């Protein structure tokens, strides 16, 4: 971790675009959507334009009464201006609290309360359609990025406010608060400092540094996720044009990538899964990609194999990092075209030398192994400093500086970390639900999602989604499950009906609850 500490002065989000624009004034940010706070700027912005917009938004926030050290909750319709608003808040020394547009209104109110009378930046759509009226009581003041609503103040009303000089906070001061995935209940609010963010920047920057200068980097990451605030700075500070995607719909992505071919793509695993169809697109939207990168969750070998096959670059690589919102990236490995669709997807790589560390703690007195996995614990200077309002929960996951990830696995004699399951997702008699899912993906081409959960009777239940919602052929299924542990018959759901987090992870416990309550998606295999 000593490499994370050398000259670590903090991430300085408030002046991020100023510094990038000074170094690379001709570089662009390309969007697939208009910004709610500035639709007139269009979808291709030079870095100086983005820097100017962040400075203008910061001045509006100051004119609205926001002061250094105060919290600003941002919960609005999806868009890149969520991330820009976070930079604007940091520019005046305030602490942005980013809440996913996918969160339900009651959860948002609970998290706003936890932030203790923050300013709330939202929009007419959220106030009209999802946020309860008592959000006004929980917030100090409600500001709108678009539209109008009684009791709320449009940010546009402060347009042209006197400029405020950037305020640089100490590196150990909170710089951003994000929320956890919420796969196991109400999300927790994770507090990041400038120091912890810069520590996360180091290992991820080593990956991007191998990308040829000036090649565009495409990012499809939740705008409220901590990963956005390392991926985005790395790209623009190293001199790469930036492609920011709100939508992962394959047709629109293919069109944009054909116009501005990226050299590196960072995206959620489920997004890459959805983009498998782009491998056969005659326009070759993935043909220029040299590096694919994913940090959020387990990614299936079939997807890696398919995407690498779509690149026409010499020796393309897929970099998979293992990490968590609370600690950032911890371990990583790369894959080449030689990796087959049924390769071992449970190996998530090795720690970053000098920056992160991993250990696996026995649960039964035996050395951790595939048949007897242990608790995965990690060390990194990128670890959050607390959960806002729930410090005791944070303390329960820390053991002498080691952070318990909530996952189980083991390390091979070569030091490679194998992730088998989340602790809460384990099913008695099943070594790894994730391994079963990998094998089913490799054997059934039409699968676009498969989740193995524990059924009401304790048996593993495969919940499947198919491409174009096709019926699942029973004979194909029976051939695919040969050699796998006994399971119940598959239950078919539409992908969009599966409960998902902000980073498109499936909420497995919520899905199990829905099944137990009698919901069965759109039926079985027939």
Verbal overview:
- Helix 2 runs antiparallel to helix 3, helix 3 packs across helix 4 and helix 8 crosses helix 9 (228-237).
- The protein is globular.
- It is an alpha/beta fold and 526 residues long.
- 27% of the residues lie in helices and 23% in strands.
The share of residues in helices is 25-40%
How would you characterize the largest beta sheet? Answer: 14 strands, mixed
Class based on secondary structure composition and strand pairing? alpha/beta
What best-fitting shape do the alpha-carbon axes yield?
A: globular
Q: Give the end-to-end Cα distance, rounded to a whole number of Å.
A: 54 Å
Radius of gyration: 23 Å
SS strand fraction: 15-25%
Residue runs with pLDDT of under 50 for 5 or more positions: none
Mean pLDDT: 91
* Total number of strands: 25
Domain AMP-dependent synthetase/ligase: 17-384
Pfam families: AMP-binding
Protein name: AMP-binding protein
Organism: Streptomyces sodiiphilus
What is the topological layout?
Elements (H helix, E strand, L loop, with lengths): L1 H4 L10 H8 L4 E4 L12 E3 H17 L7 E4 L6 H11 L3 E4 L6 H10 L4 E4 L1 H6 L5 H4 L2 E4 L8 E2 L19 E6 L9 E5 H15 L8 E4 L7 H10 L4 E3 L5 H10 L4 E4 L1 H6 L16 E4 L6 H10 L6 E8 L3 E8 L11 E5 L4 E6 L12 E7 L5 E2 L3 H6 L1 E2 L2 E10 L5 E6 L10 H11 L3 E8 L5 E7 L7 H7 L10 E2 L15 H9 L10
Parallel strand pairs: 1-11, 3-4, 3-5, 5-6, 6-7, 10-11, 10-12, 12-13, 13-14, 24-25
Antiparallel strand pairs: 1-2, 8-9, 9-19, 14-15, 15-16, 16-22, 17-18, 18-21, 20-21, 21-22, 23-24
């Amino acid at each position: 971790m000593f490499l994370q500490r050398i000259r670590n002065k903090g991430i300085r989000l408030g002046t991020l675009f100023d510094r990038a624009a000074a170094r690379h004034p001709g570089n662009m940010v390309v969007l697939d959507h208009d910004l709610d706070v500035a639709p007139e700027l269009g979808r291709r912005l030079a870095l100086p334009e983005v820097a100017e917009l962040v400075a203008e938004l910061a001045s509006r926030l100051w004119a609205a009464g926001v002061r250094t050290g105060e919290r600003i909750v941002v919960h609005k319709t999806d868009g890149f201006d969520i991330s820009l608003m976070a930079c604007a808040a940091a520019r005046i020394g305030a602490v942005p609290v980013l809440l996913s547009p996918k969160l339900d209104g009651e959860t948002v109110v609970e998290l706003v309360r936890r932030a203790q009378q923050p300013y709330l930046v939202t929009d007419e759509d959220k106030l009209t359609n999802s946020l309860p009226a008592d959000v006004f009581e929980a917030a100090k003041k409600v500001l709108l990025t678009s539209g109008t609503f009684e009791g709320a103040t449009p940010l546009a009303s402060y347009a042209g406010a006197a400029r405020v000089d950037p305020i640089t906070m100490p590196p150990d001061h909170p710089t951003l608060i994000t929320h956890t995935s919420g796969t196991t209940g109400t999300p927790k609010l994770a507090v990041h400092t400038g120091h912890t963010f810069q520590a996360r920047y180091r290992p991820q920057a080593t990956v991007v540094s191998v990308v040829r200068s000036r090649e565009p980097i495409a990012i499809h990451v939740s705008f409220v996720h901590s990963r956005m605030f390392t991926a985005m700075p790395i790209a623009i500070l190293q001199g790469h044009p930036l492609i920011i995607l709100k939508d992962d719909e394959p047709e629109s992505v293919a069109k944009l990538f054909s116009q501005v071919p990226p050299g590196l793509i960072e995206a959620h695993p489920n997004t890459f899964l959805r983009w498998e169809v782009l491998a056969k697109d005659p326009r070759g939207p993935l043909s220029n990609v040299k590096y694919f990168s994913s940090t959020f969750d387990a990614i299936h070998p079939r997807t890696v194999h398919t995407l690498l096959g779509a690149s026409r670059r010499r020796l393309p690589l897929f970099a998979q990092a293992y990490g968590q919102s609370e600690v950032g990236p911890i371990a990583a490995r790369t894959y080449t075209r030689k990796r087959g669709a049924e390769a071992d997807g449970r190996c998530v790589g090795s720690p970053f030398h000098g920056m992160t560390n991993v250990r696996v703690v026995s649960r039964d007195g035996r050395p951790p192994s595939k048949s007897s996995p242990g608790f995965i614990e990690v060390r990194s200077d990128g670890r959050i400093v607390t959960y806002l309002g729930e410090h005791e929960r944070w303390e329960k996951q820390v053991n002498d500086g080691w952070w318990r990830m909530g996952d189980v696995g083991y390390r091979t004699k070569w030091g490679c970390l194998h992730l088998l399951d989340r602790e809460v997702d384990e099913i008695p008699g099943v070594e790894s639900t994730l391994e079963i899912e990998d094998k089913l993906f490799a054997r059934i081409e039409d699968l676009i999602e498969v989740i193995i959960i524990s059924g009401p009777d304790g048996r593993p239940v495969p919940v499947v989604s198919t491409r174009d919602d096709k019926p699942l052929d029973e004979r194909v299924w029976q051939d695919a499950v040969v050699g796998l542990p006994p399971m119940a018959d598959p239950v078919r759901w539409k992908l969009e009906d599966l409960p998902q987090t902000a980073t498109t992870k499936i909420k497995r416990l919520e899905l199990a609850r829905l099944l137990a309550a009698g919901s069965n998606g759109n039926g079985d295999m027939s």
